[in-house]
Amino acid sequence: MSNSYPLLDITWTILIVFAWVLYIWVAVTCLLDIFRREMSGFAKVLWTLVIIIFSWLGVLLYLLLNHRGMTERRLKDQQLAQADFQNAVKQAAGTGGPASELQTAKQLLDSGTIDQAEYDRLKAKVLAS
To answer: For residue 66, what pLDDT band results from cuts at 50, 70 and 90?
Structure first.
């Protein structure tokens, strides 16, 4: 069994698989950047075809010619996603409950926006719920 697939062939196979995985990773990164960029639809189609048809050469060509701004575009998208996530969490968390409502009512009373009677009515309403 060991004679039918020598060690050098195993090493070569591992290198080929590694090269394909690396190519797929870099190609996906380039394709994501292509569709993230502000460019015409024709340019996006052209770059996509270059990457698909010429594989390694297309990816390396894209990286050489369009490397500026790739990191900034990726970071901007990540920051927008993080902000969207934080807004969703804040909305899901709600207002903070009765303690927050009482604190807001007390601040309104202290600032003179509402009088003591209105504060007492708000307090009774919050404590009743």
So the answer is: confident
- Sequence-separated contacts (24+) of 68-75 with Cβ below 8 Å: 69/37, 70/29, 70/33, 73/33, 73/36, 73/37, 74/32, 74/33, 74/36
DSSP 106: H
Q: Is the separation of the CB atoms in 43 and 62 below 8 Å? A: no
**Which DSSP state fits 67?**
-
| DSSP state letters, 71-87 | HHHHHHHHHHHHHHHHH
Question: What pLDDT, on the 0 to 100 scale, is given for residue 8?
Answer: 85
Question: Dihedral (C-alpha) 71, 73, 74, 77: value to the nearest 10 degrees?
Answer: 150
User: What is the value of pTM for the model shown?
Assistant: 0.58
Checking if the pLDDT of 119 tops 80, the result is yes
Residue 125 or 5, more confident: 125
Query: Is there a contact between 59 and 23 (Cβ–Cβ < 8 Å)?
Result: yes
